[in-house]
Amino acid sequence: MGRGAEEGRVTTYEEHTKLTDLSATADAVRRAVESVIEGKPEVVRLSMTVLLAGGHLLLEDVPGVGKTMLAKALAKSIDCSVQRIQFTPDLLPSDITGVSVYDQQRKEFEFKPGAVFAQIVIGDEINRASPKTQSALLEAMEERQVTADGSTYGLPSPFMVIATQNPVEMEGTYPLPEAQRDRFMARVSMGYPSPEAELRMLESHGGISPLDALRPAAHADDIVKLIETAREVHVSDAVRRYAVDLTTATRNHPELRLGASPRATLHLLRAAKAAAALAGRGFVLPDDVQHLAVPVLAHRLLPSAQAQLNRHTTEQFVTDILRRISVPDPYAAQRLRGF
Fold first, then answer.
1. Rounded CA separation 92/95 (Å)
2. CA 291/CA 274 separation, integer angstroms
3. Angle at 76 between CA 70 and CA 80, to 5 degrees
4. Tens-place pLDDT, residues 229-269
5. d(C-alpha 67, C-alpha 84), whole Å
6. Could you tell me which of 249, 269, 228, 227 has the C-alpha nearest to residue 318?
7. Which is it for strands 256-258 and 302-303: parallel, antiparallel or unpaired?
8. How many CB atoms lie within 10 A of CB 132?
């Protein structure tokens, strides 16, 4: 039991039970994913955070480091509908959203849903398709619906897009437009595994793929409830102000020509709530915001031409801003008692 922030909010037994159930279910899903993905606990945890925050995840790295494997493992660890889209230069927007087909017998057009009508949508190598095709996901990702031929069709719940992309310097890739990147709650790079993790991977993946043996650790209805529980996590005014100060600093940074949007601030707080819930807490600490600032904010920023010439990355800018912005005292902000 404990007391929250200024409002004197008390954590009830029901809320404590919900958080306990959330942690148990999330741990089961995490263990299932880690049985496939070797040596990347932080990447798996961030994926779980985005899932419980109701967001979308962008996996970026060179080929062969397990981006698609992570997306498939996360999707398979949840008993829900899954669709995989292989993005190619000749992929059409209608291949993603669906198309209206004329029914000769009924004398009318009938909408045939596309691959986006699934609870987990895996977009493989999303930046190999043209910007026109990439933009077909915009409405689906933000509003959880698809509009075609004047009609609107709702998407199932939960709904999550897990997209992989190769670095834009690679041949045959198209950089994601700013509006598309802003829809993704977080971006994470897999990175190369450690030698020990790579040895374990050779042993476990040498015969039958562990993905084939993976069984769902949760149902779709469980995830919907967990998302609702994560949204109920308390955020004090001091932590809200801290998140706004961070995003405002990106907009005023002299070496950034595009800062974080208000949607980025909202995503940062939603992700922080999910991270707090995964830790079994009913309140957000400034540490939660700090740990998520780089994966949530960096991919939305555009450096100036001079910054690009100096080879400064957006991750470096976010890290610098984190050092400069004063951090609120979590205990002064929360006035915690009994946690």
1. 5
2. 12
3. 130
4. 999 999 999 999 999 999 999 999 999 999 999 999 999 99
5. 13
6. 249
7. antiparallel
8. 11
For residues 312 and 255, the answer to whether their CB atoms sit within 8 Å is yes
Tell me what percent of the residues of the chain surpass a pLDDT of 70: 91
How many Cβ atoms are within 10 Å of 147's Cβ, its own excluded? 12
Residue 82 identity: V
Ordered DSSP codes for 283-308: B--HHHHHHHHHHHHGGG-EE-HHHH
pLDDT tens across 38-73, in order? 888 899 999 999 999 999 999 988 777 788 888 889
CA–CA separation, 273 vs 276, rounded Å?
A: 5
Task: Give the number of other CB atoms < 10 A from CB of residue 29.
Answer: 24
How many angstroms separate the CA atoms of 47 and 64, rounded?
19
Q: Are 190 and 74 in contact (CB under 8 A)?
A: no
Question: How is residue 49 written in tokens?
Answer: 């955070």
Buried b (16+ CB within 10 A) or exposed e, 37-63: bbbbeebbbbbbbbbbbbbbbbbbbee
| Torsion sign (Cα): 41, 44, 50, 54 | negative
Cα separation of the two ends of the chain: 6
CA nearest to 249, candidates 285, 289, 308, 189: 289
Amino acid at 79: D
